[in-house]
Design goal:
- This protein has one domain.
- The chain is 75% helix and 0% strand.
- Helix 1 packs across helix 6, helix 3 runs antiparallel to helix 12 and helix 11 packs antiparallel against helix 12.
Length: 316
């Protein structure tokens, strides 16, 4: 189940330096609407991938992840070349930011899910991810050269509460709680560490560099922990699942998410992460699962309220 959790949660996601970095100040309405649309689509891809990810529950996790990120990187490079997008090689301190995304937001995130799932129920790790909008609302503006504002922080708290209701609560021990904290930090790092390099590399370049770095890291882990023959243990269903995750949850979702962060800023883009657990719950119903409980419906309503508060305050 750890791989299933990884995709379900991963949701897995710039100004003083943002004028060099990337997230825009209050954007014109068409740009803001496009940012919301891309962020929502990214979170729907992530939240809706739970059923597909569960196929990989018994597969060699790190090898499957290496294949996934490698395939996504090739797709992104090919599409960038075909569409005339310029990819820039990192320089100086940019390597630190990009490597940080790969190490924390991708590799450590998955490791924390693998280890955390041995001590905590999935809902505990889900709630940890649900808390990320608050950190993005507080720290994101600082990295973008502005100050946190009350309305986005309040909206993030509301969205976090709603996402927590949708996820539900679970049991854990002290070690599981520690891993949940790691999951929380790594999920936030996926967005926060991208801010200083988003301006120069853009969503496409950032996605390309993070995916190839993740490919190398996961390949090393796969070779050392699962063995070079692990790739032969991937079944036909595993390959289909990896292919879907590479296309929809990595290549597409990464570009869409970083485009949203660039247009909306981290604090407001972060509100959209509350859509991932809602999409996961909705997908479960569409695939024949049980109908949401009243508590889940209440959580969906709270998420909607938080999004309304957050994005209405921007217009005001």
């Amino acid at each position: 189940m750890p791989t299933a959790h990884a995709q379900a949660l991963h949701v897995a996601a710039p100004h003083a330096q943002a004028r060099h970095a990337g997230a825009a100040p209050p954007a014109p309405r068409p740009a803001a609407a496009l940012g919301v649309a891309s962020g929502v689509t990214a979170m729907v891809c992530v939240g809706g991938s739970v059923a597909v990810s569960s196929v990989l529950a018994g597969a060699p996790v790190f090898t499957a992840e290496a294949v996934r990120y490698g395939a996504a990187c090739l797709i992104l490079i090919t599409l960038a070349r075909l569409t005339g997008r310029r990819l820039t090689w990192p320089r100086r301190t940019e390597w630190l930011w990009l490597s940080g995304i790969g190490v924390t937001g991708l590799v450590m995130f998955n490791l924390a899910l693998v280890e955390g799932s041995r001590h905590a129920e999935p809902a505990v790790l889900g709630v940890a991810v649900a808390c990320v909008p608050v950190l993005l609302a507080l720290v994101g503006p600082l990295l973008e050269g502005t100050r946190p504002r009350t309305a986005p922080v309040a909206a993030a708290l509301v969205v976090t509460c709603g996402a927590g209701l949708v996820q539900g609560l679970g049991r854990t021990d002290a070690i599981g709680m520690a891993w949940a904290v790691v999951v929380f930090g790594c999920e936030a790092a996926f967005t926060l560490l991208a801010i200083p390099v988003l301006g120069r590399h853009g969503p496409w370049g950032l996605s390309v560099h993070t995916t190839w770095l993740a490919t190398v890291m996961f390949a090393v882990l796969g070779m050392t922990r699962e063995g070079p023959a692990a790739i032969a243990r991937l079944s036909e269903q595993d390959w289909l699942a990896v292919g879907y995750l590479a296309v929809a949850v990595t290549a597409a979702a990464f570009v869409l998410w970083y485009s949203s962060v660039r247009r909306l800023g981290a604090s407001r883009a972060g509100l959209l992460t509350g859509i991932a657990p809602v999409a996961a719950a909705s997908t479960g119903v569409l695939l024949g699962g049980p109908a949401p409980t009243p508590l889940v419906w209440a959580g969906i309503a709270v998420v909607a309220a938080g999004l309304t508060v957050g994005f209405r305050s921007r217009r005001d």
